[in-house]
Amino acid sequence: MKKGLLVSFLCAFSFLFNACTPPESQPKPVLISASQIVFYNNTTLKGVTTTNSSLTYQPADYEVSVNRITYQTTLSDGTTITASGIVYLPNQLYSPNKQYPLLSFQHPTAFSNAEVPSGFNFGTVSFSYPLYFATHGYIVACPDYIGYGTADHVPHDYEHRQTLAQATVDMMLATKDFLAKKNVQWSNQLFLAGYSEGGFATLSAQQLLEEKYKSDLPLSGASCGAGPYAMSAFFKHITQNSTVGGVANYIYAWETLSYNRIYGLNKPVSYYFKEPYASQIAQSLDNARSILASFDQICTDQFRAEVNNPSSPFARALADNDLTDWHTTTATRLIHSQQDEIIPFLTSQQTYSDMRKLGSSNLSLVALPQGAHVPTEVLFMRQSLDWFEQIKK
């Protein structure tokens, strides 16, 4: 038998065992456990108020089941690990058979377990962005990310494209399995939304979904807010221009030292930062919060030189986390304030320009004329929901 015919025969025979099916069309079983944390009836939800008038909270006739799930995901070195997340499952009293779309919500930078989805105090019902989306008719899946929740025994790979993407995609696969086990029929529409680190996680997950999981988790829309997607340009900016200091230094130093660890660069803190800042940061990363100097002023000359040298180890790490060199077929919005003092607007601007050149015709840039980084998160949530409502079936 000729080689080509033999291969065809073997594939046809092994089809019964799925041996010739591409890996991306065989999502691995990732759901480990699921349990309901709390159930909010409609009367309880109607008692919830939002402190921001720009968010219209409308519980209508909804009730919501809040569930904690654990699932298997993979670290960048191939190690499997158990991660966790929360799923908000809405139901309308007068439309009990209604099917809802799934929305994966990626949280922004969290400094402790108390700030991730599973760390929320569910004992006292209060307003949250996931609950906001759930009471507008979305099943909301919220990954904790690696380094938090069940996976808090390992460091969080801060702003690491691959780890964030895989943990988020596997959370979606686990949620899909969770819904099937509960016999919940959903609309098969999938949306992504996230702000700040959540915006970076969202676009990272979107790229992974489109490349490897398109048939299992087809996307309807994605909204990304104020993320450092153009990572190389982002670091060039913050190491060469004046920044606000304070919490921004914490974020930038955290990312620098994360890449130092993840990519095995193994440089001492003093390689990246001048004294006395290096000693303060080496003692505790939290000390970076109290450093009021601009980030470019605390960086060493050798570190700045690495950032500007494309062939240097740190610059290659940055390039590995750039999200500018691919094209998306999904309707996508990059929402960013032009006055953002933490993540400069140029990151969204360059990402939009580069991805459009590569054929991302469904990508749009929403440039907000004003607003600091944290307050703009509220506007991002409202605009994202308004846009999803236009696309939702």
Automatic annotation (TrEMBL):
Span of the signal peptide: 1-19
InterPro entries recorded: AB_hydrolase_fold (IPR029058), Lipase_secreted (IPR005152)
Protein origin, superkingdom: Bacteria
Gene3D superfamilies: 1.10.260.160, alpha/beta hydrolase
UniProt keyword annotations, A-Z: Signal
Name of this chain's protein: Lipase family protein
Lineage: Bacteria, Pseudomonadati, Bacteroidota, Cytophagia, Cytophagales
